[in-house]
Amino acid sequence: MKLSKMHVKTLREVPNEAEIASHILLLRAGMIKKLVSGVYGFMPLGWRSLRKIEEIIRQEMDAKGGQEILMSAVQPAELWMESGRWSKYGPELWRLKDRNGRDFCLGPTHEEIFTDVVRNDVSSHRQLPLNLYQIQTKYRDEARPRFGLMRSREFIMKDAYSFDKSYEDLDKSYQDMYDAYGEIFTRCGLTFRPVEADTGAIGGSNSHEFTALSEVGESEIAYCESCHMAATTEKALCADAVPSTEAQLPMEEVHTPNTKTIEDVANFLGLDQKQTLKALLFVTYDDEGEENGYVAAFIRGDRELNLIKLVNALNIPEHAIAFADENKMAAATDCVGGFTGPIGLHDCKIVVDSEIPGLKNLCAGACKTDYHLKNVNYGRDYQADIVADIKLLQAGDPCPVCGAAVKHARGIEVGQVFKLGTKYSEAMGAYYKDENQQDQLIVMGCYGIGVTRTLAAIVEQHHDENGIIWPMSVAPYQVVITLVNPEDEIQAEVAEHIYQQLLQARVEVLLDDRKERPGVKFKDADLLGIPVRVTVGRGAAQGQVEYKLRRESEKEEISTEEAIARAIKIVAEER
Amino acid sequence: MKLSKMHVKTLREVPNEAEIASHILLLRAGMIKKLVSGVYGFMPLGWRSLRKIEEIIRQEMDAKGGQEILMSAVQPAELWMESGRWSKYGPELWRLKDRNGRDFCLGPTHEEIFTDVVRNDVSSHRQLPLNLYQIQTKYRDEARPRFGLMRSREFIMKDAYSFDKSYEDLDKSYQDMYDAYGEIFTRCGLTFRPVEADTGAIGGSNSHEFTALSEVGESEIAYCESCHMAATTEKALCADAVPSTEAQLPMEEVHTPNTKTIEDVANFLGLDQKQTLKALLFVTYDDEGEENGYVAAFIRGDRELNLIKLVNALNIPEHAIAFADENKMAAATDCVGGFTGPIGLHDCKIVVDSEIPGLKNLCAGACKTDYHLKNVNYGRDYQADIVADIKLLQAGDPCPVCGAAVKHARGIEVGQVFKLGTKYSEAMGAYYKDENQQDQLIVMGCYGIGVTRTLAAIVEQHHDENGIIWPMSVAPYQVVITLVNPEDEIQAEVAEHIYQQLLQARVEVLLDDRKERPGVKFKDADLLGIPVRVTVGRGAAQGQVEYKLRRESEKEEISTEEAIARAIKIVAEER
C-alpha cells in the first residue's frame, strides 16, 4: 500500500484524556478513534493488527479442535433469567428493550446462549466433547471506562465454551485451552503469566487469568519465585499466622481516647498491630438495590481486607456490598466508628478472618466511644457467623505453598479460563444421554480472550518514547519504505523497485511516497512502529539504502538487493 | 474435518415458521439457529460460508482501493441528531440508553459515524478520494421479521462510504463500487440485476439496487428487454398517458347509487376505467407520531398508486403516512368513502398524478354519497397542492424509455449503492480545503451489501428438493468423502487416503466417518450441499470409488486416484 493513498491520520499531540502508552500511542498513530467515552473505532492500520491477532487466535483454537460459530450480540432476557444472572449481574449489563417492550441485553459474555445451543443440539454422549467459540463484539456498560481499549464499553472478545461428559474430560478441555492461550499470547509477542484467579460473575470452580505483565495493568498478581504459586491478589490464599499457645487472659476494658485507627491504639497501648483486631463495616444490597443488612468483617490489625474473598464468603455479587454509613449502621447495630469490636454488636453479620480463632488476647474496639477491650478471644468472648480467609496476600508475606516471601506484580488481564462445571447446565437443563441412555449433566468450561485489550497490552509491552514497536506477527505492515524525496527520479524508482519485489515475496509493505518532509516521515514510521524500515535517500544513486529495525537503534547502509533479501528473511522468520 | 467431530445438527423436519427455501434449508442443514424472532446464530458450516462471502467482498473492495476499518455498532444519538435522522428514522431504529441515561442506537447504517470520522481526519484535498468500509453486525428492529436471514433484526452488512472532491469524482467512485458489486455477486454465484432504486431513508440523489432474481424476493423490479431500463417498481418512472385533445365538457353531477369502486362506477356509467379518477385517502404523522394532516391522492382509475413516490412527493418518511380512517377524515375534510373526488374537499393536501392534468373529462367522486361528477377537468374545476408521478409501473405498461411493454420480476435486494452528494457533509459540516485553501463540502457515496442476506439469496438460487447446492466459491467445504462403512478396514483406509491427499492439496474436505446408516449420510451430504462427493463403499477393495457433483445427477465409478485428481481440478477451477 502506498501511504499517500492510505487513510492514516497521525497526531503530534497527546490526547488529553489518554494516560497510558497504549491509549496515547494508538490514538496518536491514528489506529483507533474515540467515538464516545469507552467506545472506539479501528482505523485501517489498527484494524489490520487486530485482524492478525484474531487470526492467531483462530489458528490456535482450531488446532485444539475448536469450531468457530457466531451467535447474536443481542440476547433475550429470558435466557439470563433461566441462569439467574439477569438479576445478579450489575448495571454493567447493558440492557435494552425492543419495539414490543421485550427485554434484551447486549451480551458481555455468552454462557447462556451457548448452553442453550447445546441443550438443543446435543443429545448423545457421542456428540461430546465439543468446543465452540466465536470472535465477537461485546458490551459492558462500565461506570468509568478508561485507558482506551483497556477498559471500554464495546470491545471484541474471543469466547469459547467446552462441553464434556465428565469432570475428568473437562480437565483435558481446560488444559487444551490453557495450552492454546499460552501459544496465542506467545505468538502475539506478550510477556505474560497464567495465574490462579477468582471466578467472579461467571461462576464455576477453577480459573486462571492470563496476565500480560505491565505496570499500568489493573490486575495485581502475587507470585512466588521459590515455587510455582501465582495468583491474582484477589484469589491468592494466605498463610495464616501460627496459632498462639498463650493462655487466655481476662478481658479488660481500657480507656483509649481518640484512638480511631489501629496505629493509634497500638501506639497508645504499646502493642504490636498484630495484637489488635481491625473492624471493617459494610452494608449489603438486594437484587433491587435496596439495603438489606450490615456486615462487620474482622481481620488482624496489620492485615488488609480482600473484598473479593469477603463477597465470596458472603456468597453475594461484588456490586451488592459497599462501605456502610457508620452513623446509620450504629443506630441498627450499636457499632461505634473507630471503636467497633465484635462484642456488643448485634443485627449484623460477623465475618472473622480464618487466622483469628488461632490468635489469643487481641485488642478490639469496645463498641463504646474512646474505649477498647484487651484480651479478646474468639470462642470465649464472641462467635462469628462466618470464619473464612478474607485477607489480602501482600508482597513479602509468606507464600501459602512454600513459605518463601511472595512478590507482587501488576498486569493486564488478556485472557481467562474457567471450569464452570455444571453451573449453567444445571440451571438451564443441558443434558446428554450416556452409554446407558441415562441423562447426565453436561460439564462446561469457558474461555475468554480480550482481543482489543490484547492489542493494547502488546503496545504497552512494545513501545518507546517515539512510538509503537510492533512484533512482526501482529504488525499492520511488516516493512515500510521511506522514500526521502519523491521528486527525485532515481530515489522514486529504487523505492518502487523494492516495493514491487517485496510485494511479490508477499511481504506486507508500506511505501511512504507522501510529499512530506523527511523528518515527518521518519517520525511517523517510528510512531506507527513498522518492524523494518528501508530508507531510500541520496545513496540510491549508488545503489545504497538504509536498513533499520524499529526495535534496534543501529542503522546500516547496504545495497538495495541485500535490503530486499534481509527484509524478506526477517519477515519469514518472525511472521 | 471429520464429521464425527464436527458440530452439525441436521433436521429431518421442516421448522414450522420457515416458509422459503433458504430459511428451511439453512435451518435443516444446521447452518443457522434461531435465538428469538429475527435473531439468528451461525453454526460452524454456516459460518464458514459466511466468512467466504466476507472474504470475496474484502478482496473486491480492496481491489478498488477500499480500506477496511471497524466502527462501533453502538452509536450516540447526538450524531443522528446532527444529521436529523434521530427523529426521522422510524421505530426500526433500535434505541437504548446507557447507565447514565444517555441515548444511543444500535446502528442500522453508519453515514453519521463515517462522516464524523472524515470531518475530523480530512482537511486537505490531497487526502481525497477516500473509500472506507467495514463488515459489521447491524440492527433493524423490524415490526415483522421473517424469512430467516432475509429480513432479520440482527444482520451482517458490508457498508462502504466514499468521500470525493466533486460530483464528477463521485461518479467515478460510484462506478467503481458498481463494478465491484458486479464482481462480488458474480463470484458468489448469483444471478442478479442492478436496477435503479429509490434512496429511501438513506437519502441522496442516485441509487442502484443489486437484485438477486428470486420468486420469494421482497423487491419487485420492472425491466425492459428492448432497452436497458431496469428499476425497482418503487422507483420506476411511468410513461404518462398521451394528453387528450378533447374539448372540455360541462361538469355534470350524476346519481350513481352503490358504486363505491372504480369498477362499479365505470360499469354503471358505461365508461372505460381510464376515464375515471381514483382517490386514495391518507393520514400523516409528525415526528412524535401524532396525526398532523390528511392527504388525498388522485390517479387515473385503472392505475395503482406507488406509495414510495407519494411519500417522496410529500417529502415525508415512509412511516409518517397510513391509510386514513374515512369517517374521521370525513369530519375534517368532507370526503365521502367511495365517493371522494377533488372537488368539495378541504383541509387536506391534494396530490394529483402527473398525467391527470393532460386528461380531459374524467369521472370523479362528488364528495356526496351515491353521486359522481362527470367531465371533471384539472385546472378548470380544481387545483392540486402537488402534481407528481405517483403511479406504479406495471407489467405490460409501456417502458418509460423506449415504449416497449415492461416486464416484472421479483428479487432479493443483496446490495445497494447511493450517491449521497453533500446531504451528510452539509448537515454535519464535513469540509476539505481545495487547492486555493477554500473550504469545500465533501461529496459522499455509500454502498451496502447484506452479507447474511447474500448467503440466503445464494441458497434461494442454488437448491433442489434434497437440499442446498453450494457454488464452489462459498461452499463451507468443497468435497465430502462419504465413507459408507467405517467398520470396513479397506473402506476406512481408502477414505483416509483420499482425505489426506485432498488436505495436502489444500482442498477443504469433510470426511463423513460417522457410525450412521449410508442413507443418512447420503441425505445429509445432499442437504449440506457440498459441491463434490466421493463415496467410498464396496468398490474400495477394487480401488473404485463413486464420484458425483452435487449439481449433477449422474454418478461415476472411477479409480481412487482419478477421483482425487478430478476433485483437486474442479476445486481449483471453481473456487
Please describe the structure with a list of short key phrases separated by commas or semicolons.
homodimer; Rossmann fold; globular; 3 domains; 575 residues; 29% strand; 14 helices; nine-stranded mixed β-sheet; 31 strands; 27% helix; YbaK protein; five-stranded mixed β-sheet; alpha+beta; Pro-tRNA_synthetase (chains A, B); BirA Bifunctional Protein, domain 2
Description:
2 copies of one chain form a homodimer. Chain A has 575 residues and is of the alpha+beta class. Chain A has 3 domains: 248 residues, Bira Bifunctional Protein, Domain 2 (BirA Bifunctional Protein, domain 2), CATH 3.30.930.10; 137 residues, YbaK protein (Alpha-Beta Complex), CATH 3.90.960; 98 residues, Rossmann fold. Chain A is built from 14 helices and 31 strands. In chain A, the strands form 8 sheets. In chain A, strands 3, 7, 8, 9, 10, 11, 12, 21 and 24 form a 9-stranded mixed β-sheet that branches. A 5-stranded mixed β-sheet of chain A has the order 16-14-15-17-20, with helices on both faces. Chain A is globular and about 95 Å long. In chain A, 49% of the residues are buried. The mean pLDDT of chain A is 95. Chains A and B meet through strand 1, strand 2, helix 2, strand 3 and strand 4 of A and strand 1, strand 2, helix 2, strand 3 and strand 4 of B. Chains A, B: Keywords: Aminoacyl-tRNA synthetase, ATP-binding, Cytoplasm, Ligase, Nucleotide-binding, Protein biosynthesis. Chains A, B: It is found in: Cytoplasm. Chains A, B: It comes from Aminipila butyrica.
